[in-house]
Amino acid sequence: MRDTIAIEVKAKGTIVRKDEKALHASGEDLKLKRKIIVCNESHRRFSDSGVEIIPIHDFLSELWSGNLV
What we know:
Blueprint lengths: L3 E6 L11 H9 L2 E8 L5 E2 L5 E4 H10 L4
Parallel strand pairs: 1-2, 2-4
Antiparallel strand pairs: 3-4
């Protein structure tokens, strides 16, 4: 399960810690390679807890180019 990536999509412009709750719960059961929230933020960043927060356009570019995994 080391190659498992958890992806959550949110229609928000700003992600806050409570938005990461479901990803952290999934990470307790699985050994996740990456935890990603796809959203409407303008810049890519990492949260304090290590969740990748990726704007939708960046995410789709990575997905289509095969660079997501």
